Amino acid sequence: MKFDPFEQMSKAWETWQAMAEESVNRAHSFYDAIDKVEAKSVERAESAMSEAQKLAKETLAYNTQLAAEWRKLTVDSITRAAKAFTPEAKNN
Question: Does a structural domain hold residue 82?
């Protein structure tokens, strides 16, 4: 009976290689899954930013319109107040 110590080492090396290859494959699978999740997160973030931009534009337009209305009301009020204190208004 012949005993070869390197035979055990060869089997251990093959086992180690198989485990390392499996580990690398699992890491690839894990990172593929992370890529998908990250892509969805980026898509959601882009959508949220797009909606925020739209909302900011609408808010700016509304504030501009509101300011114009306030200016118009102010001018109308001043005009009415001025007419109330003119001699023409007192005679009517």
Answer: yes
Q: Could you report the per-residue pLDDT of 22-69, keeping only the tens digit for each?
A: 999 999 999 999 999 999 999 999 999 999 999 999 999 999 999 999
Of 71, 73, 49, 53, the residue nearest 61 (C-alpha): 53
Write the CB contacts of 29 (distance below 8 Å, at least 6 apart in sequence).
none
What would the mean pLDDT of 5-18 be, rounded to a whole number? Answer: 86
Euclidean distance between CA atoms 81 and 66, whole angstroms: 22
Q: Is 14 helix (H, G, I), strand (E, B) or coil?
A: helix
- The answer as to whether 2 is a domain residue is no
Query: pTM for this one?
Result: 0.55
| 89 CB-near residues (< 8 Å, 6+ apart) | 83
Residue type, 65: Q
Instruction: Decide if 56 is inside a domain.
Output: yes
In the chain, the number of structural domains is: 1
